[in-house]
Amino acid sequence: MSIKNNRLTTAEYEENFTDIHPPFETPDAALVEANRCLFCYDPPCMKSCPTSINVPKFIKQIATENLKGSAHTIFSSNIMGAGCSKVCPVEKLCEGACVYNLMHETPIHIAKLQRYSTEKAMDNNWQLFERKPSTGKRVAIIGAGPAGLSCAHTLSREGIDVTIYEKESKGGGLMTYGIAAYKVTPEFCEDEVNYITSIGGIDIKYNQELGKNVTVEELKRNYDAVYLAFGVGLARQLDIAGEHLEGVEDAIKFIYELRNNDYSKIAVGDKVAVIGMGMTAIDAATQAKRLGASDVTLVYRRTQDEMPCTEHELNIAKLDGCKIIWLAAPKEIKGDNGKVSQLVCDVMKLGDPDESGRRSPVVSGETFTLEVDMVIKAAGQMPFETLVKNNSFENNKGKVAVTDKALTNQEGVFAGGDCVNGGREVVDAVQAGKDGAAAIVKYLFGQDYILDCELKPTFNN
């Protein structure tokens, strides 16, 4: 067993990392699917979307071949509607709520239709919003991820000038650096960032990290308001013996490296164990398999009923040949000559429910051992607690504490997204950005100022 790169041919890498959710092949295919929609009066699909996209409306616009109108409807609610159409767990959101499920029929392919019109808009650079005249107000945003970009676009539409400070060399946050490459490519993420900023009034300063290159106090002096959207990203440690052996990787780092390099350059083991069962764990496991690992096993301390990932995501891992061991928790990692050779696991049983409502895993006293040469830790992410405390923000278990969705304990400073909620879906971060923008506009212009989130389009829809 060994950890090495360049396991596959160029053609095999290309096949393994091709689009897992391909678009409609022809306009007619999109029209046929759009015309399946029942255009419900009180649509459950719209209610299940965190950004409240008017799903029946945008599908009706596709059915009537009004693609600009359809894209405008989507982007009015979710400026990252194109990216979300690729990465959203729609099976538990809009498509999961589709009334066709009650009829035991295939739900409308909402995400695929959403992708159809939004990608047309991006490909053709349709400018669907007209920015209001400049108000002279300036807002600084920390983080060019979904929450930061959503907040920036909403503010820019209102005539507010925005500067985003981003610690990485590219924008997009989790979309660019933390999601499986077969779901969304870095190239698409870059195109989406460019499309969002093309409205004008948004300047992104890259390689600028909070606490190193810029401070909250400095931003408070130089801007009329500040919005924190720096996310989460610290991998939760296992706190077991052998965790620092060669061959033990954080899932976040593993996916980050994969997103930033040619697939052939990413080293992977023959036999890989992935600890966890969230979306990041699934992404790490499936990508390890697609990089050429012969054996990938997901180890989870609870049962399938308690897993944080969706059944759809689990099925992707199963179809890729990944194995799953339920009711198992890592106890020790053993090695030879400083390199991983075995993963010792406790056999678990379920006890009483914990704070999350899920039954707590309890050690049974039995153990088993897996022969492995690589262990990928995906047991969750921790907030940037030190960063939050060093800047004197009230915190909730290390996350930025807010009231009224976006208000921090500091005058003129707002926050949203993963740095507040600890890590949810991309679409939740987009909505948090909208909420933050609404709070900032209210702060800058007064109680009676109404945020116009549905600007008049620059075309006839």
Layout of helices and strands, plus pairs?
Elements: H1 10-16, H2 27-34, H3 44-47, H4 55-63, H5 67-77, H6 81-87, H7 94-97, H8 110-123, E1 138-142, H9 146-157, E2 161-165, H10 174-177, H11 186-197, E3 202-205, H12 216-222, E4 225-228, E5 234-235, E6 248-250, H13 251-260, E7 271-275, H14 279-290, E8 295-299, H15 311-319, E9 323-325, E10 328-336, E11 339-353, E12 359-371, E13 374-377, E14 381-382, H16 385-390, E15 395-396, E16 399-400, E17 413-415, H17 418-421, H18 426-445
Parallel strand pairs: 1-2, 1-4, 2-3, 4-17, 6-13, 7-8, 7-13, 8-9
Antiparallel strand pairs: 5-14, 10-11, 11-12, 15-16
Helix pairs in contact: 2-4, 4-5, 4-8, 5-8, 6-8, 9-18, 13-14, 14-15
Domain Dihydroprymidine dehydrogenase: 15-125
Organism: Flavobacterium luteum
Protein name: NAD(P)-dependent oxidoreductase
